[in-house]
Amino acid sequence: MPHADSSLIPESIQTKTEFWDHIHTQLEGLFDGQRHWVSNLANASSLIYSSLLAFPKYFGSADDRAVNWCGFYIDSCLFPAPQHPTSKSTDDSNRLLLGPFCGKPACQYIQTAPDKARGVCADAYIHRKTIVVPEVNLYPGHIACDGETKSEIVCPLIYEVQEKTHVLGVLDLDCLAAGAFDDDDRIGLEKIAKLIVNACNW
To answer: Which residues, 6 or more positions from 23, have their beta carbon under 8 angstroms from its beta carbon?
Structure first.
């Protein structure tokens, strides 16, 4: 099957639970034989974004209900050091850096230092829990990368090793409709986040 076909949604899928289970299965196939997190996160953001556009019962491509952004912010320490550094340097400590995504251009980084952190992504990362925001303009400290966004869901990427947990970053979805995401989305995305974490070398 061509890789692009993995984003097709069968007509038999009618519920959000069925949708996210289908995405999980498709991602397993795309990740097969690949462990690099950049490549896997790129395919994950593309598959989720494209599949949501093809699922009109709850999202679709309409201007008033589409998911308009899907992607990742990753702990800066996980990005490889430059192989050919220049005289220009930045202090990326205590930051989530923009990773693979689909949608309009987004914020380059998100502060996670206790005295600087704000917004949904920072909160999900720091508190290690998924945050569902029905109306982003009512969320304290919301960072508006796209003024058209009405609702958001952010799921942390949690890596467990040797009885310790590490938060690697977050998976972030924005929608043009208010109240677009619910507990079914949370459960589905948390399973997908776990799959993504376990499918990659960090």
So the answer is: 47, 48, 51, 188, 192
- Three-state DSSP class for 25? helix
Write down the pTM of the prediction: 0.94
* Of 163, 118, 108, nearest in space to 143 by CA: 118
Helix (H, G, I), strand (E, B) or coil at 171: strand
Contact 148, 171 (CB under 8 A): no
The encoded tokens of residue 146 equal 């796209």
Other CB atoms within 10 Å distance of the CB of residue 17: 13
Q: Bridge partners of 132?
A: 153
User: Are 98 and 107 in contact, with CB atoms under 8 Å apart?
Assistant: yes
User: Is the Cβ–Cβ distance between 200 and 35 less than 8 Å?
Assistant: yes
Residue range 24-71, pLDDT digits in tens: 999 999 999 999 999 999 999 999 999 999 999 999 999 999 999 999
Task: Give the closest residue to 153 by CA, choosing from 129, 174, 179, 183.
Answer: 174
Query: Amino acid letter at 145?
Result: C
Say which range, 33-37, 55-59, 113-117, 196-200, has the weakest mean pLDDT.
Answer: 113-117
DSSP of 35-67: -BHHHHHHHHHHHHHHHHHT-TTTS-S-TTT-E
Q: Is residue 28 within a helix (H) or strand (E), and if so which, with residue range?
A: helix 16-31
